[in-house]
Amino acid sequence: MAARTGIIVVGGGLAGISAAIEALHHTSHAAGVTITLLDKEARTGGNSAKASSGINGVLTGTQLNLGIHDSVDAFVQDTLKSGQGKANQTLVEKLASESTQAVSWLQRDFKLDLDVIAQLGGHSYPRTHRRPDLDGKPQPVGWGIVGALGKHLSELAGLENARFKLYTGARVVRLLTAEHGGVAGVVYETVDPDSKVIQQHTLLASAVVLATGGFGGEGSRPHYLKRYAPQLVGLPATNGAFATGDGLGLAVALGAELVDMDQVQVHPTGFVKRNDPGNPTKFLAAEALRGEGGILLNALGRRFVNELDTRDHVTDAINKLCSAPDTRARHSAGVDVVAGEPSSAAFLVLSQAAANSFGHGALGFYEKMGLVQRAGSVEELSGMLRVDHGTLLKTLQDHDMARDSGLSDEFGKSTFPQNALNPLLPSGAGAEQQQLQYYWGVVTPSIHYTMGGVRFDDKTRVLRAADGAPIPGLLAAGEVTGGLHGANRLGGNSLLECVVYGREAGRQAAALVAEAS
Ligand SMILES: Cc1cc2nc3c(=O)[nH]c(=O)nc-3n(C[C@H](O)[C@H](O)[C@H](O)COP(=O)(O)OP(=O)(O)OC[C@H]3O[C@@H](n4cnc5c(N)ncnc54)[C@H](O)[C@@H]3O)c2cc1C
Ligand SMILES: *[C@@H]1O[C@H](CO)[C@@H](O)[C@H](O)[C@H]1NC(C)=O
User: Fold this and answer.
1) Are 485 and 91 in contact (CB under 8 A)?
2) Which of 123, 129, 131, 267 is catalytic?
3) In the chain, what is the greatest distance between 2 CA atoms, to the nearest angstrom?
4) Catalytic one among 290, 303, 464, 489?
5) How far is the CA of 146 from the centre of ligand 1 (A)?
6) Where do the domains of the chain lie?
7) How many other CB atoms sit within 10 Å of the CB of residue 108?
């Protein structure tokens, strides 16, 4: 006989975890509703655990404390503009108007110190919240959020008569259909650790939440990418290899519609590792590096773009303007052509002031990984980048002049978070001057996020291709869904969608269980 649970959540990234927590909150012990979360990996967290720039929120306590006069409307407009007419306004409005609660839920209920705010590309105010260093150590934001929420869930799972169950190493391979065309449960596979034999299990439920993430991690076995965005096959990616779009196939088998599948976000700044330039998996250079004042240079030592433009525009600029032999940034390994070097790449450079506001914990981590190097002066920097010293100096000075002018510069940049040139300290302060550094790395566009996915509505119901009606019992949240971001996702909007729509899915699932009993 098949096992039965009240609600199944497929995928243990931030969307799935948020859904599970909220579903528990809205179902009762008395009714004995159980919630089962399945993740195919050995541990939960997904791509959510990798997030490094932060989560968006407007009118949050943190924004108010810092005197940032943002609004829901400004956030909606920025998101719609970035979506280039393809983002669904109803879905965007819900995202923005519930962002205040989403951030305060994390801050209050899970004691997360999301008190550092950056202004990322395409945003008209600083609204992307992340965590400060603690005792000089970085506290990566995605890791921290998933960790705190996951800890809460595992404590619940450990209780006697626990209503919450977590199965890791459990890959969902099929959704079961109910008589009315809805979902009746899932089939999942586990691998016996000793015999390595694959075992199939059936689990029935009144509601299934798909939270399986995107398909940006298909890597050398492109399936959706090959079909919908073949021009990107072969690009490096920032995603984990588990991000293979499983939820899309599961939902389509029940008649779900897919939308915006060709809208794949290429992040402008995946780090090119000095001694491993050809690795297809790139460590992300967090957008907050630019949000805190990092600038981009071509191999001639010149700026070429508004670093705080949206990701699609910055990516286009790197591809167009940093791909010729003399404009493509390279490491100064002394080797001219390293096998596997990306075809377009730029230098990312931070002044000491930018580094200070980004935080030395995370920066030190990049250094340790061989992604970022230091230079003690413009002269040393120009030597390392192999660019003309005068050109580089002028680039940094021009940036700072534009910053001082209060106007926008030739690239349309109007927000200049920090100076690019380290100030000269008064003579006699030699020891201190030694400490003012430049931090730099080589970055290249990398597949990062898939805007497309299953069509869903503001109640997270998955919609059918045939008639647009909801598939009974089937909900979805997070990167597996499409239609919210349109043609380009703003930085910080994904963690936010996971919380807003993950929690909504949890509430909807709870309501479905109540109906069924
Ligand atoms: C390097 C990096 C940095 C990022 N930084 C930010 C940031 O700063 N701010 C921001 O807003 N966004 C950021 N993003 C994007 C964001 O982290 C993700 O898009 C988002 O967290 C996706 O969450 P999710 O819950 O939908 O999916 P995921 O977190 O990817 O979780 C999906 C889970 O589903 C599981 N799964 C998949 N298929 C199955 C199956 N068949 N059966 C069972 N389980 C399955 C996977 O194992 C995985 O654990 C970043 C992304 C990356 C890669
Ligand atoms: C946007 O989403 C809403 C709510 O889910 C839905 O009613 C509407 O039809 C969608 N609009 C478009 C253009 O898809």
Assistant:
1) no
2) 267
3) 83
4) 290
5) 10
6) 3-215+451-516, 265-447
7) 11
Q: Which atom of ligand 2 is nearest to the CA of 459?
A: 5
pLDDT tens string for the chain (517 positions)?
789 999 999 999 999 999 999 999 999 877 889 999 999 999 999 999 999 999 999 999 999 999 999 999 999 999 999 999 999 999 999 999 999 999 999 999 999 999 999 999 999 999 999 999 999 899 999 999 999 999 999 999 888 889 999 999 999 999 999 988 899 999 999 999 999 999 999 999 999 999 999 999 999 999 999 999 999 999 999 999 999 999 999 999 999 999 999 999 999 999 999 888 989 999 999 999 999 999 999 999 999 999 999 999 999 999 999 999 999 999 865 444 556 678 899 999 999 999 999 999 999 999 999 999 999 999 999 999 999 999 999 999 999 999 999 999 999 999 999 999 999 876 665 555 458 999 999 999 999 999 999 999 999 999 999 999 999 999 999 999 999 999 999 999 999 999 999 999 999 999 999 988 7
Protein residues whose CB sits closer than 6 Å to any atom of ligand 2: 88, 90-91, 457-458
CA 224 from chain centre, in angstroms, equals 19
> Is CATH 1.10.3470.10 the right assignment for the domain spanning 3-215+451-516?
no
Mutational pocket test of ligand 1: of 36, 37, 212, the residue with most ligand atoms within 8 Å of the beta carbon: 212
Pick the residue whose CA is nearest to atom 7 on ligand 2.
457
476 CA → ligand 2 middle, Å = 15
**498: CA distance to ligand 1 center in Å?**
9
152 is catalytic: no
Ligand 2 atom 12, closest CA: 88
- Residue 306: which of 320, 322, 295, 298 has the closest Cα? 295
The domain defined by 265-447 folds into: Flavocytochrome C3; Chain A, domain 1 (3.90.700)
Question: What is the separation, in whole angstroms, between the first and last Cα of the chain?
Answer: 20
- Give 67: exposed, middle or buried? Use CB within 10 Å, 0-12, 13-18, 19+: exposed
> Is residue 290 among the annotated active site residues?
yes
Q: Which helix (H) or strand (E) holds 509?
A: helix 493-516
Prediction pTM value: 0.95
